[in-house]
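WARN retry 2 of 3 for item q-0093 after timeout on previous attempt; input resubmitted unchanged.
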Amino acid sequence: MKLSDLFIQCLENEGVKYVFGVPGEETEDLLFSMKDSTVQFIPTRHELGAAFMANVWGRLTGRAGVCLATLGPGATNLFTGVADANMDKAPVVAITGQGGTSRMHLESHQYLNIINMFKPITKWNTAVASTNVVPEIVRKAFKIAEFEKPGATHIELSEDLAHQEATGVCEPIPVIRLRRPAPDYKALKQSIDLLKNASRPLIMAGNGAIRKQASKQLNLLVRKFGIPVVSTFMGKGAISDRMDQSLLTIGLGFTDYIMEAVQEADLILTVGYDIAEYAPQKWNLNNRKRIVHIDFVPSEVYTSYTPEVECIADISAVLWEINQALQPEDVHFDQDWYRPIRKRILADIASYDLKDGDAFTVPGTLNEIRRILDDYGLMISDVGSHKMWIARNFPTYVPNGCIISNGLASMGIALPGAVAASLVDPNRQIVACMGDGGFMMNSQELETAKRLGVNFTAVVFNDNDYGLIRWKQTMSKGSATGTSLTNPDFKAYVESFGIKAYRPESVSELRTHLEEAIHSAELAVVEVPVQPQVNYELIEKLNNYWRDRS
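OK item q-0093 returned
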């Protein structure tokens, strides 16, 4: 059996349905082996788009998404998307081709040491060094990528090895379901005692709270005892924002209303909290908060994050044990303290509703989308000022109902991510929101989306600017530089792909176009020209609130 045939059989064994990538000479044998398999190769228009597709596939399914690139520039183009997956805890297996082993000690055409390059951005990576190790390497790559906390792994296969005959055991290694460890009984007892003695506990739900059934047990705890929850950007949907205990999202770079709850809480349970997406010194001022850390892995050593106890185990198992140990008749928490905060947050979101004659704004448009999109619908955010508004103002009702990149936070993820999301569930309503900057970074994947016949609505917020950078520069320096852009006619550009495009000119047209696009089950793009003044007004409003409160 040819080595490339065995490699693809191993992918089939892992349940891989799609490999996203750009073809190259050095991956020729893999591509032809894939052609005769159950694995479908999806050619993308850029390797970055392929990596983002694998990234979002991994986040939504919990199974590793797979991306493929050739050597040299193909692998370097893949780099950012793989790094993003690793920091966002998305299981991804990246595969790159390489030149023949006879020239890897030389300065030769397109050769780079990709193994060294990928080492800091993966959980594990290796090169296939002989013809008898492929089953072990592929199984290890998927096992490590998918095990908590998940992330990216990488396999390099040289072109001369790919077409050689496999030796040794020429069959895939069976996939055995892994069980995650149960919590230590002493740590569990200490955590329960701290919770029993608290009056105003608060749960901070992070990225890990939406994986491995953790959300189910979290919801039981919250409903049973009325404990309020704040979610990080990547924890949105861990509990439904319809629940009275939801205080929506924490993580912006300025002091929002939600910080009032953090300040008033006397115990914080962090559940699957990732420091990479929101630094603890921004909410744990002077390291004064009592913290119980519940996660798959120990906490980072961090001056501003020193939990009193850490429950290191399967998150759902820890929460199940807490639910079993606590009884409502024995434990009573104050449930009045956080209700005014939730009311204030929801009222503020509603204040951005658009009225006829209003200029378009990002938060106003998001309110329209939220009314149209069903509860199970998926919002995918790109990176930019709109991401702040989606995190802050877009209620989410199910785990993985909102995908935000907030570890590496790479621009350009939303459009290719929506392609993957539609492949995961073709019947799901999907809206991908992006700025004009992020759209132009990966707009070429519109062709991929059209070719595949996937269905989603892309909303492009156009302010002819790198708006988030302008916002931050203005807050820091009082003015902005180096952020202004010009754009093509987006409607004509999109229509040139044979895709339906809208550019509303009034609030009523915006509503009509969004409803038509989202309900059509077709691929569509809606360009929304937005005014950025609302960004600065938000900061002024919050500053006034905290000034009056003090």
